[in-house]
């Protein structure tokens, strides 16, 4: 069909570890280089969770070299997915905080399972950290400045009906209709000539892509200096503790 489905399967919660990000980029590159492949649907093989975002353990108590390597891998994922020539559809079949939301934002179209228990958003502020400009830029591109400003400052995780209302996701569907809907949307996008769609996509995304490329090294240094602050490390440890307590 010319359409690939990439299913995230990294138990327990599809957190974006260095390994996950590396494998993701390799898989995407393979599809990108496969001339027969024109579109990719991103979804999760783990029930109720699309992705829990960046793996917090990669950002806690590690060396400066590790932080640099990890952050470069996050940037790489962002650049490859946002700059993909393929049609990219996120079939969001579960909760999708922070980096999980980012993956969906990087796609051309977002369909989410209609379940008020699932939420999506850039909740970094709740962890005591700040989403970098390249997370913010594409959030603004999708939902507009006012909604993005409020949502980012409050670190909001939007339940599905709200996510749809603010335009963070394009459509809500019952769980059993998700794959069918994703395939239908993909067919609609693939009905156009590739070159016209690709040039249009690249025109719309160029400014954001160029901005990260131009500031990549500086952004890695910013990340390292921020993440190695004791106050930030303490916030992240407390957040992980909170996740564990919630469980017990
Ligand atoms: N990283 C690492 N481990 C995680 C993460 C994560 N993001 N999320 C969950 N886990 C772990 C939990 O600690 C738990 O571990 P254990 O079994 O050892 O206790 C295990 O995964 C299962 O988690 P839950 O019991 O919470 O699973 P639930 O099914 O109840 O809930 C959720 C799943 C909804 C995904 C929930 O785990 C959750 O809300 N997780 C946190 C999500 C989050 O806030 N992620 C933000 C990550 S930060 C980010 O992506 C962007 C950072 C930008 C950097 C800015 C520069 C400084």
From TrEMBL:
One of the Pfam families matching this protein, by short name: ECH_1
Single GO MF annotation: delta(3)-delta(2)-enoyl-CoA isomerase activity
GO terms, biological process: fatty acid beta-oxidation
Keyword field contains Lipid metabolism: yes
Keywords assigned by UniProt, alphabetized: Acetylation, Fatty acid metabolism, Isomerase, Lipid metabolism, Mitochondrion, Transit peptide
EC number: 5.3.3.8
Localization per record: Mitochondrion matrix
SUPFAM superfamilies (UniProt xref): ClpP/crotonase
Annotated InterPro entries: ClpP/crotonase-like_dom_sf, Enoyl-CoA_hyd/isom_CS, Enoyl-CoA_hydra/iso
GO cellular component, one term: mitochondrial matrix
Subunit structure as annotated in this protein's UniProt entry: Homotrimer.
PANTHER family associated with the record: ENOYL-COA DELTA ISOMERASE 1, MITOCHONDRIAL (PTHR11941:SF45), ENOYL-COA HYDRATASE-RELATED (PTHR11941)
Physiological role: Key enzyme of fatty acid beta-oxidation. Able to isomerize both 3-cis (3Z) and 3-trans (3E) double bonds into the 2-trans (2E) form in a range of enoyl-CoA species, with a preference for (3Z)-enoyl-CoAs over (3E)-enoyl-CoAs. The catalytic efficiency of this enzyme is not affected by the fatty acyl chain length.
Family: Belongs to the enoyl-CoA hydratase/isomerase family.
Identification of the protein by name: Enoyl-CoA delta isomerase 1, mitochondrial
Species this chain originates from: Spheniscus mendiculus
Gene from which the chain derives: Eci1
